[in-house]
Amino acid sequence: MGEFLGSFRQRLWGCLADETSGKEEEVLRYISGITPEGRIRLISVQEIVYCSICSKRSLVKTEHGSFLSRFTLNELERRLAPFGFFRSHRGYVVNLKWIDEVVSLAKGTYDLVLADAERTRIPLSRRQAKKLRAILCLERFRL
Q1: Residue 142 — pLDDT band, cuts 50, 70, 90?
Q2: I need a labelling partner for 52 at 20 to 30 A (CA). Which of 2, 60, 91, 138 fits?
Q3: Are the C-beta atoms of residues 86 and 94 closer than 8 Å to each other?
Q4: Helix (H) or strand (E) holding 57
Q5: Which CA distances in Å does 65 have to 15, 50, 51, 95, 130?
Q6: Which of 99, 94, 112 is nearest to 48 (CA)?
Q7: What are the distances in angstroms from CA 63 to CA 5, 34, 43, 48, 67?
Q8: What does the pLDDT look like over 102-138, one tens digit per residue?
Q9: C-alpha dihedral over 119, 121, 124, 130, to 10 degrees?
């Protein structure tokens, strides 16, 4: 138990130091999330699959569950962008490492299929499809 508390304290102090340093983008390692039981959990940025909007609150989805966030989706996008996250739609920020497929739908719309257990489908807006092509160096290909 002492080892867990030590680890939690280290992570908590790391988060506090990150927020007070003024350089969150460079040193951010954890996002705080609220469990369904109301407990606060520190979520490693590397664990996050995607973030979305749920009942006017931000939801952070990991392999291990979903957590409410105190940050808006715009704040999450800004904080997570340096770690390979992408705003695919007005309601979603996706970890690029989890994208498995881009599926073409009707009239130039797309879905991103993630490599999680549920094979989650995230909408990709037309405007963001152009940005994603540039990020993935696929300018010559049409998404």
Answers
A1: low
A2: 138
A3: yes
A4: strand 57-62
A5: 21, 11, 12, 15, 31
A6: 94
A7: 23, 15, 11, 7, 11
A8: 888 887 788 999 999 999 999 999 889 888 888 777 6
A9: 20
Residue with token string 């959990």: 41
How remote is the C-alpha of 53 from its chain's centroid? 11
Going by their DSSP bridges, the two strands 110-114 and 99-104 should be labelled as antiparallel
What are the two backbone dihedrals, phi and then psi, of residue 120, each rounded to the nearest 5 degrees?
Answer: -55, 140
Type of residue found at 101: E
Residue given tokens 């498995």 in the structure block: 100
End-to-end CA distance of the chain: 50
pLDDT at 140: 60
Residue 23 has pLDDT above 80, yes or no: no
Give the Cα separation of 93 and 81 in Å (integer).
9
- Across 11-20, 32-41, 44-53, which has the greatest mean pLDDT? 44-53
Beta bridge partners of residue 89, listed in sequence order: 92
> Could you tell me where the DSSP H helices lie in the chain?
2-21, 24-27, 73-80, 126-135
Nearest alpha-carbon partner for 69 in 80, 79, 57: 57
